[in-house]
Amino acid sequence: MRARQDPVSIPGVNVLRWELGNALRELRLAANMTVAQAATALECSDAKISRLENGQRGAVARDVRDLCDLYGVPEQRRNELMEMSRESRTADRQSNSTIPAKYSTYVALETSATSMRNYEGSFVPGLLQTEAYARAVIQDLGDFTPAEVEERVQIRLERQRRLTSRFRPLQTHFILDENVLWRPIRSDNSIREAQMAHLVAVSRLPNVTVQVVPYEVGFYPGVEASSMVLLSIEEGTKAYTACYAEGGFTDLFLRGTAEIEAWSAKYERMKEEIALSPAESRVLLMKIAGGRHRHWSVR
Questions:
Q1: Among 52, 80, 95, which residue terminates a domain?
Q2: By C-alpha distance, which of 292, 291, 260, 287 is closest to 276?
Q3: What percent of the chain has pLDDT over 70?
Q4: What residue numbers bound the domain in which 49 lies?
Q5: What angle do CA 73, 76, 80 make, to 5 degrees?
Q6: CA-CA distance, 190 to 146, in Å (whole number)?
Q7: Residue 177 bridge partners (DSSP)
Q8: Which single residue of 8, 91, 129, 144 has CA 20 to 30 Å from 215?
């Protein structure tokens, strides 16, 4: 059997497309079929089957369904592959959109990640935002046309599907400065109230942990970043951590191992020593969502 290809060595291939292609190839081989036989059955070219298996062409749901029918794939595995196809197509759409290259790179990395650690000092994390909150933030903080606003909102909502994916849910840990929870969104307090209720609900997902750094802490390691994300990524036999940080008027991908380890250490210190526990944080979120004023102690 030919060795699996490393996605890093194939230009222009997103990791999900590569994984899906390898899965389809292995299923074809298990069914004792050649590329030519599969192409004949689907009434397409040999080249199309090869491009699908090499990850050089995105597989639409119909392609996956037809190949699964042909190879006799069980329903559960078929559903997993269909979801993988949808997620890979989402990644392709995002990389081809009008959003800036740096953000496209971030979204591609996030799509490939198996886990995420995210600190936010100014806004609710994108993966946890309601549609109304996301639209308000994007409209108010950027000079975008209405079409560009909607594109960015839809990309943000599509990214959130990883939280409830049955195939490969993203394991997430979020730390929020308490200031995030109280910041008004325009003059419409209903947006913030709905957002707080959503945070309470999403914090109950098995793959989502939310912790809050309370006001009383004052300054703490990590507060110098308005936003920081650590993504754990596996590509073939390779595993690495990508770090994206924002602070002041700059944002950057940290590439040096020492830099990434330093930010990771700050995050772990916030998690273990500074932030409220997940249970305490949920109590705080529930009180804010219930309209309580900030005069209680949760510790």
A1: 95
A2: 287
A3: 83
A4: 7-95
A5: 90
A6: 22
A7: 213
A8: 129
